């Protein structure tokens, strides 16, 4: 995913001066509101703060990715704050955070959000890219670095399908694991199709190509979920299903983490689940 598809230059703050993570989240939320990326600050702030209380989104190596699913938003949007002095974000590595990606996304773009986060983490864990961003003079330069770095990671749908079919690592995975990869990709393309103004025929072709590879029984359940309560595939964060926001029984959540030979579904909403 190209990160800059969801980041405007006007939403990049190259010199964010804040004392703590609460202030950083508030400042970046107001930036998105001022740039008309969302309609109401209050509910968005409530959601992201509630998520942060559950578990810090400081993922280490100077990066934090606070996020929230907000029904009032139409598409995923991200504000970026660079904090040269660093702040305590209660990160997993207990080190200061220098770069904050604040993300809000609608319920219909769960997979888009997951792909965005995965791309951001992969890009920014490259020490050379992180150093370049910290040394950049302005928002335009940060934007260009993010665009170029994430563009290099983009694969064509044909390569994605070929990888699932032939990659030696994936081929050694249990079938359930490979099916999860396919479901995630198919759901992403469906979200793109739902929001696309052009290129719909190509997206439908990508979806059909992937559908042909998924186990028929899994595909039937996926279709029922997408029709009645999309998204069909959601992550589990902090033992909580991100589809229905119900906490999973501890023993079952542990089973989902350890048993990679099967695809699991939430015992409350029946969505496909996986642990991030």
Molecular structure report:
With 276 residues, the protein is of the alpha/beta class. Strands 1, 2, 3, 4, 5 and 6 form a six-stranded mixed beta sheet that branches. It has a four-stranded mixed beta sheet with strand order 8-7-10-9. About 2% of the residues have low confidence.
Provide a brief overview of the structure.
With 276 residues, the protein is an alpha/beta fold.
Topology:
Blueprint: E1 7-13, H1 21-34, H2 41-54, E2 58-60, E3 63-64, E4 67-69, E5 77-87, E6 97-105, H3 110-124, H4 127-135, H5 139-151, H6 157-166, H7 168-171, H8 175-195, H9 200-211, H10 216-228, E7 233-237, E8 240-241, H11 250-258, E9 264-265, E10 272-275
Parallel strand pairs: 1-5, 3-6, 4-6, 7-10
Antiparallel strand pairs: 2-3, 5-6, 7-8, 9-10
